[in-house]
């Protein structure tokens, strides 16, 4: 039995159906259903009655829910004690965002002379970022979403009892090598025909093994303009540095924000705006707790970087 399974049960009760609970918890319906089935097998009784009209608690399930909610409350209390014990404790889960790495580097330099600190950063896709804050594994999450899904996902995050604040509005760009052959006949300021990229590979963080999660990332092929994307030529990576290196050293191209100017110079790539395509950068946190001093430092430094690198 895990805390996540207990949260799944609570989410099912709050949302009325397994499908809606899965959406709220940023997981697939099959994954959540299997997790609850496994929990029922472990405890030896059914927690839910299942029908075409949805789910209802069994008699034992009602008692189980009461205890699950008490456990969640106790976990929240323990998390508060942990945060109170270590003043300079900070953890962040972010998407593949170079600005976050720069802010974290500054945070580490700021605290390296201190006697008491524990700082950590992890990289994940949007659902895992949100889950990390829900499960108190991270104090904040930094996420980026294409405009087309932003309003829906923001509301879903708020429905989970989390707070979300915008950091910046960003333009989505085609990123490619500065001396890419597709740019051979293109002069500065001239509109770029995306169809010129059709014969070149597209590089993203997408994995076909998990289409439920990855469409929430703007590097997903579904966000690539159709005139440019060639499904027969794809490269996938799970590291922002590898993606930048590939774009700067091969004929591959990708979609993303402009990124820090020094990265463009370091990796020899150029950004071409995709007309009408925007994304929004946010940080997510639980308003049950006050943000720590390191969290405020991290967020403020991140804002400074974004001001210096408008996109």
UniProtKB/TrEMBL annotation:
Residues 1-58 form the HTH lysR-type domain. InterPro entries: LysR_HTH_N (IPR000847), WH-like_DNA-bd_sf (IPR036388), WH_DNA-bd_sf (IPR036390). GO terms for molecular function: DNA-binding transcription factor activity; transcription cis-regulatory region binding. It comes from the Bacteria. Pfam families: HTH_1. Keywords: DNA-binding, Transcription, Transcription regulation. Belongs to the LysR transcriptional regulatory family. PANTHER family: HTH-TYPE TRANSCRIPTIONAL REGULATOR, HTH-TYPE TRANSCRIPTIONAL REGULATOR GLTR. This is LysR family transcriptional regulator. It comes from Emergencia timonensis.
């Amino acid at each position: 039995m895990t805390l996540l399974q207990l949260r799944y049960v609570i989410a099912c009760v709050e949302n009325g159906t397994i499908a809606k609970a899965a959406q709220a918890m940023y997981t697939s319906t099959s994954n959540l259903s299997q997790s609850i089935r496994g929990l029922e097998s472990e405890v030896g009784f059914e927690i839910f009655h299942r029908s075409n009209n949805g789910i209802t608690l069994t008699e034992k399930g009602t008692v189980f829910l009461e205890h699950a909610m008490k456990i969640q409350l106790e976990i929240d209390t323990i998390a508060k004690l942990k945060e109170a014990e270590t003043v300079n404790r900070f953890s962040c889960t972010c998407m593949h965002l170079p600005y976050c790495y720069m802010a974290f580097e500054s945070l580490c330099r700021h605290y390296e002379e201190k006697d008491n600190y524990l700082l950590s950063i992890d990289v994940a896709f949007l659902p895992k970022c949100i889950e990390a804050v829900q499960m108190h594994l991270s104090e904040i999450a930094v996420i980026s979403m294409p405009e087309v899904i932003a309003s829906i996902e923001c509301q879903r995050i708020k429905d989970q009892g989390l707070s979300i604040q915008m950091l910046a509005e960003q333009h989505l760009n085609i990123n490619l090598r500065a001396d890419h052959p597709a740019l051979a006949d293109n002069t500065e300021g001239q509109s770029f025909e995306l169809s010129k990229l059709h014969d070149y590979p597209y590089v993203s963080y997408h994995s076909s093994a998990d289409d439920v999660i990855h469409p929430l990332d703007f590097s997903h092929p579904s966000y690539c303009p159709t005139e440019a994307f060639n499904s027969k030529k794809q490269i996938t990576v799970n590291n922002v540095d590898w993606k930048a290196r590939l774009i700067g050293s091969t004929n591959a191209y990708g979609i993303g924000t402009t990124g820090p100017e020094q990265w463009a110079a370091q990796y020899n790539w150029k950004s071409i705006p995709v007309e009408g395509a925007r994304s929004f950068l946010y940080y997510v946190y639980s308003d049950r707790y006050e943000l720590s001093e390191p969290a405020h430092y991290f967020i403020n430094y991140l804002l400074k970087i974004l001001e210096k690198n408008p996109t």
